[in-house]
Amino acid sequence: MLCGGKKSYFAAAVCIITLTSMVTLSYLRLQKLSHLPKIIQEGSRCRGKITNSTITALKDNRTFIISPYFDDRESKVTRVIGIVHHEDVKQLYCWFCCQPNGEIYVSKAKIDVHSDRFGFPYGATDLVCLEPESCDPTHVSIYQSPHGNIDQLPRFEIQNRKAETFSVDFTVCISAMFGNYNNVLQFIQSVEMYKILGVQKVVIYKNNCSRLMEKVLKFYIEEGTVEIIPWPINSHLKVSSEWQFMQDGTHIGYYGQITALNDCIYRNMQRSKFVVLNDVDEIILPLKHPDWKTMMSSLQKQNPGTGVFLFENHIFPETMSTHMFNISSWNTVPGVNILQHVHREPDRKDVINPRKMIVDPRKVIQTSVHSVLRAYGNSVKVPIDVALIYHCRVPLQGNLPRESLIKDTTLWRYNSSLIMNVNKVLNQTVL
Question: Which positions carry the signal peptide feature in this UniProt record (predicted)?
Fold first, then answer.
């Protein structure tokens, strides 16, 4: 009897498992079918107003579109970088218009809110839509229903549709410039250091800055170094200058920094060999190599298949200075002179130094600030004897005396070129 009972229980368990598997497979199949593009109109014209705004609010006012990008690394999809309310937005649809015949295809979006939301109600989001196989749409509209009038919907150009050869080796992404930014001298020094190290393009998501800073930006735009992406996020959401939600009624952290970083990666996916994700007061300083190109070549040879390289952050407090490089003409320029700050704080016990990144953008799916969330290939932490982040800012260990700090003059290796280049910019902009 006992043996027979065991067999009955086993058979029942097998039946339950089989039935559960069949139901799960059927559900997944239906889910996949629900996301396939469907024709809803034929012989129509692609209407709707094409929008060139960096941030576009949909009518629900819970969804904000940044930009769509073609992504065929796994399947033929349009990946729309956006910001959504993590609870209120339940369904969205991509409306594709296929030319020249004018068929309108609707594809249900997979709404993927990034995991690093840090408690804020709004977060960086990927809206991923399967594209129709029969055409390569150039524009897409986003709507909360598969039914409606496409004439009333804003249209967005799908970027990265055509493959390109790399136009630059290194692009630095700065997100975001806000708070009437006026640290002019340190900004110019950082950009000139980036150029010395091998950067050809600096992309800045600009919320606001001072008039003097605008003048400097204009110079760099005309030079071809800086590209400005307008970032009026506070026109749409109540932003916080903190990275973590403080129960203060704000909607999104640090001026939507994470969304801007993700957009910058996709924006430069086909035109830049590497993308550098750091703040404007941070410089990745190589210790064993003269520039980033030779450093990254070495790191890639040592770490084949790696797409993400993480560099350790070290604070060089702006409150601790040296009399070296006290250049009188620079004293009239607002901001910090980084050449005078070469003492770094020691590591703190049980505190992990955050990291910033140099990435192969084609291997990144989603990024946060200090690490990638999803990527193809490996991430590698670069040893501090190879490179570190020079981060000149207010101290984190403000009570330490000078003798407790570590003198690190790596930056001075570049002083001659840096001073000459900064003077050229200042003479054409500020002085």
Answer: none
Q: Comparing C-alpha atoms, which of 154, 134, 159 is closest to residue 143?
A: 154
Q: Per-residue pLDDT tens for 112-154? A: 999 999 999 999 999 999 999 988 999 999 999 998 887 888 9
Q: Please tell me the distance from the alpha carbon of residue 365 to that of residue 50, in angstroms, as a whole number.
A: 26
Q: Where are the beta strands (DSSP E) in 103-250?
A: 103-108, 110-113, 122-130, 139-143, 156-157, 168-177, 201-206, 226-230
Q: Rounded to 5, what percent of the chain is helix, strand, coil?
A: 30, 30, 40
pTM for this predicted structure: 0.89
**3-class DSSP state of 267:** helix
Give residue-wise pLDDT tens across range 221-275: 999 999 999 999 999 999 998 888 998 999 999 999 999 999 999 999 999 999 9
Task: Name the residue among 348, 338, 171 with its Cα closest to residue 264.
Answer: 171
Q: Return residue ranges of the chain for CATH 3.90.550.
A: 168-428
Q: At what angle do helices 415-429 and 211-223 cross, to 10 degrees?
A: 110
Query: Nearest to residue 194, comparing CAs of 430, 428, 431, 422?
Result: 422
Distances (CA, A) of 68 to 88, 184, 219, 256: 21, 33, 30, 17
The architecture CATH gives domain 168-428: Alpha-Beta Complex (3.90)
CATH number belonging to the domain at 41-157, selected among 3.30.200, 3.40.1350, 3.40.50, 2.60.40: 2.60.40
Taking the C-alpha atoms of residue 118 and residue 245, their distance in angstroms, rounded to an integer, is 6
CB within 8 A of 84, min separation 6: which ones?
A: 62, 63, 64, 111, 113, 122, 123, 125
Residues of the chain within CATH 2.60.40 domain(s) are 41-157
Strand ranges, E, within 254-305? 272-277, 282-286
Of the candidates 293, 284, 277, which has an alpha carbon nearest to the alpha carbon of residue 361?
277
